Amino acid sequence: MYSDNEIQAAACLSVALIIKLRRKRRNRKPKRCWTKEWIKNRERHGITNNLLRELREGDESFYKNFLRMSAADFDNLLEKVAPLIERKDTLMRRAIPPAERLVVTLRYLATGDSYKSLMYLFRITANTISQIIPEVCRAIYDVPKKEHLKAEWTEVAVEFEKKWNFPNCIGAIDGTHANVEAPANGGSLYFNYKHTHSIILMALVDANYRFTYINVGAPGRDSDGGVYQNCSLSSALENNTVNIPRAKPLPGRNKPVSYVVVAEDAFALKSYIMKPFANRNQSVSERIFNYRLSRARRIVENAFGLISARFRCLRKTIELSPKTVERIVCAAWVLHNFLTSQTQSASLYAPRGTFDVENQDCTIIPGSWRNEDATMVPMDRNVVITILAFWQKQ
């Protein structure tokens, strides 16, 4: 049996515990709701089912500006990527349709807006958008790349000779940087000569400003020439595993000449890589050669400029991990090829005056993309200026 004092102490302790539990319940924060009410209204008031539908039916020019493509091209792209980005409904909630997932991604590529900003625009939470965009970008790269990242070298060479007066050329190669947020524990690995953190983008472009090869992800401190030496294109060209045509004579000549890739001075001279002569003590024939090579090499710089002007996420510091940035850049390049090959979107994506053109007196008229203040590497005009000075003296 317990004594009276023990019973009294136990009773006081029980009362104190009850009071403490009641105070704890009183101060407890209310439970958070599963989904915000304004997000639940996405299907009824969301931008995909309202604004985009109005633009598609009433003003397609603004629809093209919003997504950087026409409604027909959007439907075509959605048909290709929908099987990879579709998700199943659950007992807890309905899945976001593939069309909305693609619209969110295209709008991010077109503007570079933050996930928070897109959350209020599309009524989708920021953490969900952070999963949607990398998934859709990977689908865009995996599916259409088979159609839009390929080349027939003979046809490419014919176009270079026809448009840029440079025969036996299968592409122009160059590299540029995409600024990223400094990765955790990255040190100076991604720190480049512009004093920013970036990854390097290496690309081969044909005569029509379309990418035939891309390599993304090298750290920003590396040089263009070093990145090229370590990419798959270098070994493919060295071992001729990409089915480059056999050497053929130049127009009006009999000696066979190899097919080449034109590049800037940072690349090493090879039998399949042609770069300009040094600027010192150039002969007339060397100046003419540099002039023609500069015209052909300018293609890749214009392609970089256009893609950064249209997909403006590339103009900003992308505050994501380098791996996610790789997916975004690859998707943008595939979309660039997709849009330039579509009749309905090509006039909007790259209208007349977009690229650099040259008059009969060798005067270069800058393309409209240069007015966009894009962050891609600017064209090295030293060769062009030297050639123009030479022609003016004649």
Automatic annotation (TrEMBL):
Belongs to the HARBI1 family. Its main location: nucleus. Pfam families: DDE_Tnp_4. InterPro entries: HARBI1-like, HARBI1_dom. This is DDE Tnp4 domain-containing protein. Residues 173-337 form the DDE Tnp4 domain. Its cofactor is a divalent metal cation. It comes from Periplaneta americana. PANTHER family: NUCLEASE HARBI1-LIKE PROTEIN, PTHR22930. It is found in: Nucleus. Keywords: Hydrolase, Metal-binding, Nuclease, Nucleus.
